[in-house]
Amino acid sequence: MVTIDQPAQMRAWASQEKRAGRRIGLVPTMGYLHEGHLSLVRLARQNADVCVASLFVNPLQFGANEDLDRYPSDAEGDRAKLESESVDVLYAPTAEAMYAPGYQTRVSVNEVTKRLCGAGRPGHFNGVTTVVSKLFHAVCPDVAVFGEKDYQQLATIRRMVRDLDWGIEIVGGPIVREADGLAMSSRNAYLSEDEREAALALSRSLGEARRAYRSGERGGEALLEKVRSVLTAEPLLEVEYAELVDPETFDPVSEVGEGALLALAVHVGKTRLIDNALLAAA
Amino acid sequence: MVTIDQPAQMRAWASQEKRAGRRIGLVPTMGYLHEGHLSLVRLARQNADVCVASLFVNPLQFGANEDLDRYPSDAEGDRAKLESESVDVLYAPTAEAMYAPGYQTRVSVNEVTKRLCGAGRPGHFNGVTTVVSKLFHAVCPDVAVFGEKDYQQLATIRRMVRDLDWGIEIVGGPIVREADGLAMSSRNAYLSEDEREAALALSRSLGEARRAYRSGERGGEALLEKVRSVLTAEPLLEVEYAELVDPETFDPVSEVGEGALLALAVHVGKTRLIDNALLAAA
After folding, report:
1. Which residue does chain A place closest to B140, by CA atoms?
2. Superfamily of domain B186-280
3. Smallest CA–CA separation between B143 and chain A, in Å?
4. Is domain A186-276 in CATH 3.30.1300.10, yes or no?
5. B26 CB near a chain A CB, below 8 Å?
6. Considering only the top CATH level, what class is B2-173?
7. Is pLDDT of B96 > 80?
8. Who among A18, A105, A164 is closest to B105 (CB)?
9. Which of A34, A242, A282, B194 is 20 to 30 A away from residue B62, measured at CA?
10. Which residues have C-beta within 8 Å of that of residue B212, sequence separation ≥ 6?
11. Which of B137, B160, B165 has the CB atom closest to A164's CB atom?
12. How do the domains of chain A map onto residue ranges?
C-alpha cells in the first residue's frame, strides 16, 4: 500500500491508472476505521480494479460546538486494516494541503441537505460536498463508495455528482451493526457503558417500525409513534429528529407508499448518533 | 469537427482521449464568436493535442434584469469559425441536459468575487463557477483557456481550480481589440453607431492611465482620476466601476507597486461593457 499526502501526487497516480485503462475505486473516510468502513472497501474492490481509501478529518464539516477536537484517531491501526484489505493507496492529505491560506471555494447541494442532519448541523453538508469534491478531483475515481448509515450524505453526494456531470458511479454500502444491533460508528467510542446500553434503543425502535410496516402499517405518524415510544422510554436519550422522508429528495413523507427512509438522530450524553431503516415493499 | 450535446457522451469521448494519452484543451464560450474567442482556441491548440470548444448560454450567470433573452447568437457562423480553426469537438449541451428538474448544486468562490463585477452582478460568478465545473467534469480538460477581458472571471476560475485540487492548467488569453481600440465582445453587437463611438473612451482611458504609469505615476487615486476624466467626458457613458486591484486576490490597491489591474465596467445605453489593463513594471 502506497501512502500519498499531496493532491498533485494523488492526481499523478490516478492519471497513470487511467492511462492503463484501470477503474479506480474510492472510499472516503475520517479514519478510526471499523468493520463498516472495511465493508465499503470490499465493495470498492468489487467495483474497481484499484482501490484508494482516503483518510482526512475534515474541519469544514464540523460545527463550532462539535467534536472535531476529540474525534478519535488511530493512524497505525487504520493503516494495518487497510493494508490487510489490499487497499492500493492510502490518500491522507494534510490539513495544510487541503485548506491553504486563501482557500475560499465551496460546493453546496441546496435542497436534499435542508432537513434532518442538515437542519441540526448547519454547514455540515456544505463541508462534506466541498471536501468530497476535492477528493474526487485528486483521486479521479470511476466509482466511490459511501455508507448508508449516513443516508442523507449518500443522497447528497449522488445529487452533486448528477448535477455537476461528474459521471462517477456512487455505490451505497449497507449499515454494518454490532451483534446487539448498534450501528457501527467511530463515535461509539465516546459512549460509557450505560450510554452504550441506552443507545441500543435506536436500532430497536427501527426494528419496531419495520415490524409494523411489514404488518401493513403505512401511516407515517403511526410508524413514527412506534419509534418515539421506544426512544423516549430511555432517559439517557434525547431525540434530535425521527422522520420519514423520500430517500432521494429527503422531502417528508406522510404515507409510506413505494418506500421511505426512516431516519433518526439521537443524543446520548455528549454523543450524537444516527441510524436509519429503509422501509420498502419487498 | 464532431458536435456533442450530452454530458455523458462528452465524458465518453474525453475518457478515450485520456486513455490514448492525449492532452485535452477546452475553450468555454457562450457563442457569437469573434476574433477574441478564436485567439483562445489557438492558445488551446498550442497547449493541447485535441481541442474542445463549448457553446452554452448559461442562464445561471445572468441576473433577472440582464440580457439573457437577447444575448446574440449565430450557430451556423460559430460552427464555421470553429471548423476553420480545426476544433475537434463542439460541445453544445442543451439547457435541459445542463439543468434538469431537481438541479440544486452550486460551486462558489467567495472572496475574489466580492468586488467589481461580483458587486454589480450578484450571483453572476456563482453561475460561472457552477457551469465551468460542469464543463470541466464533462470535458476533462488538461488545460482550459479564458480571456483576460473577463479578468475577474479568470482569477475566480484559477482560485476554484487551485482550491478544489483540480489540476487543470488555466491559461489566460490577451484581450483582442478592434483596430480603433474597442475590446472585442459579443455584446458590442448591441451598440448603436453613437454608442460604439462613445465606447472607445474605455480603451482610451486605460491608455491614459498606462501612459501615466509608464511615466512613473504609482498613486492609485491619480491613476483612477486619469481614467475617470476620460470616461465622464462622454455623456453616453455611465461608469459602474473603475478600480485598481490586486490581479490575483482582487483586493483594492492604493499604490501600484509590483503591479495592479485597472478594471472598468461602463454602461453605454442598455449595454454593459468591461475592459481592463494590467499595470506592471516591465
Report:
1. A166
2. Pantoate-beta-alanine ligase, C-terminal domain (3.30.1300.10)
3. 15
4. yes
5. no
6. alpha beta
7. yes
8. A164
9. B194
10. B222, B223, B226
11. B137
12. 2-173, 186-276
Averages of pLDDT over runs of 10 residues in chain A (282 residues) are 98 95 97 98 98 97 95 97 98 96 98 97 97 98 98 98 98 98 97 98 98 95 97 98 97 92 98 97 70
Q: Is residue B37 flagged as an active site residue?
A: yes
Which position has the grid cell 448535477?
A: A163
Does B109 sit within 8 Å of A108, measured CB to CB? Answer: no
Per CB-CB distance under 8 Å, the chain B contacts of A165 are: 7, 11, 134, 137-138
A109 touches chain B (CB under 8 A): yes
Strand order in the sheet with A237-245: A237-245, A259-268, A271-280
Antiparallel, parallel or unpaired: β A259-268 and A271-280: antiparallel
Contact assessment for residue A41 and residue A51, using Cβ atoms and an 8 Å cutoff: yes
Q: Tally the residues of chain B.
A: 282
Strands B259-268 and B105-109: unpaired
Residues in B touching A163 (Cβ below 8 Å): 103-105, 134
- CA-wise closest residue to B62 among B92, B36, B99: B99
Which pLDDT band, with edges at 50, 70 and 90, does B282 fall under?
Answer: low
The answer to whether B159 contacts A104, with C-beta atoms less than 8 Å apart, is yes
Question: For residues B44 and A109, what is the distance between their CA atoms, to the nearest angstrom?
Answer: 32
Establish, for the pair of chains A and B, how many residue pairs have beta carbons separated by less than 8 Å: 89
Residue with cell string 438541479: B103
